Amino acid sequence: MPGHELSPSTIAVGAGRPNRVPGGPLNAPITLASALVPGGASEYGRAGNPTWDSFETVLGALEGGRALSFASGTAATSALFDLVPSKATVVAPRHAYYGTLTQLHERARRGQIELKLVDIDNTQLVINAAESAALVWIESPTNPSLEIADIAAISQAASRAGTAVAVDNTFATPLRQKPLELGADFVVHSASKLLSGHSDVILGAVVTNSDRAYAAIEKRRSVLGAIPGAMETWLAARGIRTLHVRLDRAEANAKELHKRLSASSRIVYSRYPGFGTIIAFEVAGGAQVAQKMTEQSDIITYATSLGGVESTWERRRRHPQEPESVPEGLIRFSVGIEDVEDLWIDIQNVLAAFA
């Protein structure tokens, strides 16, 4: 063992690999099996799979807890929401991923929970709402508005009130933000995004440093059957190995493009939280121009996903589920690792087409 604390980039490369034995594989093999021989950690594929372990080990090491993988980010979120007591209050951001908000609104309509939507960057407002809640759900940065929450202050106040805090860390990743160290109880990921990084995986995860919470989430995964595939977890573990270099490059691109977009007279407003790979901006001309722009770029792909090596963008309000408070012309831009000058020329070309 090394005599010093390893950096996150080294952990990303090395954690979760098989023991070094002569003739053994460097990477964890893919175990395609629905049944396993009794006597080990699991004997049925819904309860466990050796291929999951590699991904869960490296993600847990990066976040500072124990990770559980799920069939999707939405499945991970659903399992966590299932732990909220009946009729209890959940506090959530007004701006958040619409799949999460859809789940919360449906549970509220069925009378399962009371839902309070807040501006997550208004710390005192969130703290006040948390006093009577069972769970505070945080996105930071939020999707797609990129507001930032004070996770430490909210978690500290929530802990005093006996309120659990869960943080969707998809946009930041554990390389830019570690919510468990800031006092949160749970971290949730859509591992389809930056963690896997190649737009070829649907996968989710929950991380906690509480053994009791881990056991409860693991039970929900098994009962719901919201388990990942072996191939998906293998691909995600492989993707994490390069997370640090992908994130560094895409983040550098995002910072430069945000600077240039902010200086453009054709951009109404450009938002960037100072880290990460996501920019949100509005263009002069509103929703119609924004929609046409995203459809006509050559390098940047018109797509709803994010966090891959390729740049993607879309007008978020094209989705009917998107909160009405999100501007009609807002474009969410997931910056990839292409050459930044090529990306800027592509943006200039589509802007010029609608000048």
From TrEMBL:
GO terms for biological process: cysteine biosynthetic process via cystathionine; transsulfuration. Keywords: Coiled coil, Pyridoxal phosphate, Transferase. GO terms for cellular component: cytoplasm. One of its GO terms (molecular function) is cystathionine gamma-synthase activity. Signal peptide: none annotated. The modification N6-(pyridoxal phosphate)lysine is found at K193. Residues 1-24 are annotated as: Disordered. Residues 240-267 form a coiled coil. Pfam families: Cys_Met_Meta_PP (PF01053). Its cofactor is pyridoxal 5'-phosphate. InterPro entries: Cys/Met-Metab_PyrdxlP-dep_enz, PyrdxlP-dep_Trfase, PyrdxlP-dep_Trfase_major, PyrdxlP-dep_Trfase_small. The keyword Nuclease does not apply. Belongs to the trans-sulfuration enzymes family. This is PLP-dependent transferase. The lineage of its organism: Bacteria, Bacillati, Actinomycetota, Actinomycetes, Propionibacteriales.
